[in-house]
Amino acid sequence: MGQFLTAVFELRPTRRKAAALERVRAPAEAVFWEVMATLRPSFESLPLPGEDQESKKLAKTARIEACRNAQKLALQKATKAGLVEPVAAGLARDVEMAVSSFAELRAKGQEASWPVKHEPTESDYVAALQALAASTDQESESKARDELARVRKPPKARGLTLARSRDGNIIRDQMGRLAAVLNCLRANDKRSRQATINPGVDPSTGEGFKKNRSSKTKLVIPLACSKWHENKFLAPRRDGRRPTLRSSIIFPRDDRWWMAAQFEMPQEKAHLSGAVLGVDRGCVYPVAAALVDANGALIELPEPVGKEVGEIIVEMEQRRREESRRRGITSQSYFNAVNDNLHRIANSIVDLAREHGAVVAVEKLGEFKRTIVTKRIRGSRKGGWRRVLKKAQLGKLEMILKYKLELAGLPQMVEVVAAGSSQSCAACGHRAKKNRADRDAFKCVECGHEMHADSNAAIIVARRGVFVLQRKLRKGDKLDQLHKNMIAGLRAGGMTGLGRHGLAVPVVSGRGSAE
Q: What is the domain range of residue 326?
């Protein structure tokens, strides 16, 4: 089985077709919330598992039975409301997923809130603005800002789920134009018209059809996407395999219609060389990487990347704060800019790992990462890490890397101990606080080795990844001694402490020799 990715395409329906979509979507949303309101008491009263196996088994059986009944109820309500079978099946799946998620979280003892329809609230904006201007302490200022944030916004319309690919397909006609074929209308609908599907090709299968096809239950809507999306999801791979469309969600946003299509991607299998790509995450440069072989010898050391990414994130954060002061809300552009740049960083890491068949090693940040992602207390100071890698960026980068590595056919990341990686010398193994001259510069007080501090730390992370993969770490072993033994082995083979002679590595002032 491959990996699932979701692509969002823009639909460009005529007014008539947009109205037809809304005639299906609106009652489907009404049925969903009606069913959820009906099911709430029964799911909130489900028995919780106890300590013994018998009670756990009984609770699991009750959850499974409740979810089955929820799916049946959704199908009955959807059919009664006049929704066609493809729409009713998708609605039943949505209900089953929502209630099962609530039940599973509750069974695990985690906090679970029942899905409810968002009802917008409206505040007295002028009064809240006056209260903010008159505030004299942190508490009154925070209260006024919270009131300003409660501006009236219409709730987002719920999407229309087509759980089977044959009910929400994508085709390419003989002129290369893309269109979505949505099976969502009733045949006896007096306002629906006969839709003609011109000869073309199904991009998911590569199969062509020459004859015109017509149907009164389907809508054929032109589809727009970028060339990247087209090549990624609607074109065959080098080995001839194609992404397979499995399901889709049709939803409106800001008077435009979109199709979130879920594709099963063909899984690649990378050939591993024994190399390890160490990734160090820093303040100014979000990512510094170093590639070493199975013996710890340095293969490649790219320049630390992402300084411009950090600057973009800082700039977007300043804009976000200014917008929050003016309007009391934050627009989506800030989050989009951060996400886009995190994806760029992850792509550069995956491309380098795939090129060399390397396993990616990252620092085990643990509590430090949770500190970063924790929401800052109002009025408290913000540190450098929070300005550059704000809130969930550390965790999100790992999440993005996880699925991108899997998609590339590479094994999952290995986590290594982070302690001392910024103070240990990659050339001789000496560890001392004085080695770190300043934030960017590393100069070993023992051997005089100079390098960019983040690049030096990336080499240490990569070598610790080698220890983990080769299972050289045992209880009581000292990382510093293992590192010195590795360097001694390289030198015994006629190389320097970094590997082959004359390898150029980045230093703070530019690029220079490792020796």
A: 276-513
